[in-house]
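quick one before i forget lol
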Amino acid sequence: MEKKTLIKTCVDCKKEFEINSGDLVLYEKVGLELSHQCFKCMMKQFCAFWVFGKFRKGVSDLSGESIITVLSQNVRYPVYKSHEWWGDGWDPMIYGQDYDSSQSFFNQLKELQEKVPRPHQIGKNNTNCDWCDDVWNSKNAYLSRAFTDCENISYGYRLVNCKDSFDLVYNINV
């Protein structure tokens, strides 16, 4: 089988980028239009919507409970403590609305985004990880983000199954 690649010019940075044969097969298989952006510009666009603020203290808009979050104090939507957001103490269905095709989709999406509550932190099944975000199944962590199955860590980012460590970035089984 012949390996084909396609060279395109990014619509954002105007640099050439390559779409390899595997990606070409995937695009065709799932019926996607070929990308008009290079990987770096795609990631910039993707990361524009990634919340990566600094940690701050605040209060839940539902209960008034104290929270530690990376969400800005000036967000336009309500912020609930995570256990409240996952709980049955509020009804997410009240935020449902009909789509009005005579109005801009994006304006309607913006209005919806500004009404619907968000959790103060992402993650579940953690103990003593208050000053952390995007944390799963972990214990005793401080000022760390995006990790799972870790214990006794501080100042970490993107970790899996790390223990008794600090100042780690992109580590597995440390």
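fyi The radius of gyration is 21 Å.
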